Amino acid sequence: NGFTFSAWIKPTAYNQPYNMFMGKSLPYFNVGGGSNNQKLHMSMSAAGSQRSVYGSTVVTLSKWHHVAATYDSLGYMKVYLDGKLDGTAGPFLVPSISANNLYIGKWVNNATYQYTGYIDDVQYLNHALGYTEINKIYADSVALYHLADLNSSNK
């Protein structure tokens, strides 16, 4: 049960209060800009209210990062940055998942909260991945694509 958002992102600017890299109206997954401190944020509807989880680590501009957000069968929302758990909230039961299309790089079908940067390997899964699975996606991709080398030369 639950769901997972997962992607590789390389933000180049934080021009919006919510820099959406994927979402379905609610839930959505973004990096906050301005007063939102450039940290991961996922929001969804549960028990008739909007619920959120925030990361604790700044997502550095101009570097590739693996990001993931999950909602599990126990009602916990979690965000992960570069294979590590970065924030947890809940439990929030009775989720309401929008039937809207999944949008990438923006929130819904307009320019509101548009993301600026690169996005790759986007996944939306209808179940919650665990820490071990998310860490493996991160570690396997870093090794395969030599991401440490790419980030060190700022490509």
Secondary structure layout:
Layout: E1 3-13, E2 18-23, E3 28-32, E4 40-46, E5 49-54, E6 65-71, E7 77-81, E8 84-89, E9 95-96, E10 103-104, E11 116-125, H1 131-145, H2 147-152
Antiparallel strand pairs: 1-6, 1-11, 2-3, 2-10, 3-4, 4-5, 4-9, 6-7, 7-8
Total number of helices: 2
Q: Distance between termini?
A: 38 Å
Order of helices and strands: EEEEEEEEEEEHH
Question: Could you describe the largest sheet, including whether it forms a barrel?
Answer: 6 strands, antiparallel
The helical percent reads 10-25%
How many E strands? 11
The coarse overall form would be globular
Strand content: 35-45%
What labels would you give this structure?
single chain; five-stranded antiparallel beta sheet; 155 residues; globular; six-stranded antiparallel beta sheet; 2 helices; mainly beta; 11 strands
Characterise this structure.
The protein has 155 residues and is mostly beta strands. It is 14% helix and 43% strand. It contains 2 helices and 11 strands; from the N terminus they run E-E-E-E-E-E-E-E-E-E-E-H-H. The protein has helices spanning 131-145, 147-152, and strands spanning 3-13, 18-23, 28-32, 40-46, 49-54, 65-71, 77-81, 84-89, 95-96, 103-104, 116-125. A hairpin with a 5-residue loop joins strand 6 and strand 7. The longest helix has 15 residues, at 131-145. The N and C termini lie far apart (38 Å). The mean pLDDT is 89.
